[in-house]
Amino acid sequence: MSRILTKQELHNLAMNIVGEELEKKGFEFIAINSTLGKHPQFVCVDQSNQRYFVLVKAISYPDNPHNYDMIWMESFKKHAREQKAKVFYAGVGLQNAENPNKPVFLNQDYVLEYAGLQIIETHLN
């Protein structure tokens, strides 16, 4: 019998999706933190050694995965500026494939809403 995925399992699924994209784009991972509620989830560098903080959020239906908490993001942008890092936000929408009003279950199909990495301008507030 299938069971509902926990918040941590949904977060891990979202991190796997984002991690695969980062690998395909050639980023090198410096640190990975999969603990729910700890940010950033990925610290990585590109080919020019520019540091990036990647914030991953697993979002359940009906919430919009492309929106984030603007007030919280301001404090994180300040931290990124201090570390000379750029910030990516990756909102990963996950919903039950058969009924969006039901949760996502282990080993069952789900619908993915993911627009890719969104650059967050750290010099703007």
Description of the molecule:
With 125 residues, the chain is an alpha+beta fold. The chain has one domain (7-120): Trna Endonuclease, Chain: A, domain 1, CATH 3.40.1350.10. It has helices at 7-24, 70-82, and strands spanning 28-32, 42-45, 51-60, 85-96, 110-113, 118-120. Strands 1, 2, 3, 4, 5 and 6 form a six-stranded mixed sheet that branches. A hairpin with a 5-residue loop joins β2 (42-45) and β3 (51-60). The longest helix has 18 residues, at 7-24. The mean pLDDT is 94.
CATH level 1 class label: Alpha Beta
What is the CATH fold-level name? Answer: Trna Endonuclease, Chain: A, domain 1
Reported for the largest beta sheet, the result is: 6 strands, mixed
Shape: globular
- CATH architecture classification name: 3-Layer(aba) Sandwich
Strand content: 25-35%
Number of strands: 6
Order of helices and strands, N to C? HEEEHEEE
Q: Report mean pLDDT, rounded to a whole number.
A: 94
The unreliable regions are none
Radius of gyration: 15 Å
Q: How many domain regions?
A: 1
Q: Strand pairing plus helix content: what structural class?
A: alpha+beta
For the terminal residues, how far apart are their CA atoms?
A: 48 Å
Query: Helix count, per DSSP?
Result: 2
* Amount of helix: 10-25%
Protein name: Na(+)-translocating NADH-quinone reductase subunit F
Organism: Aquimarina algicola
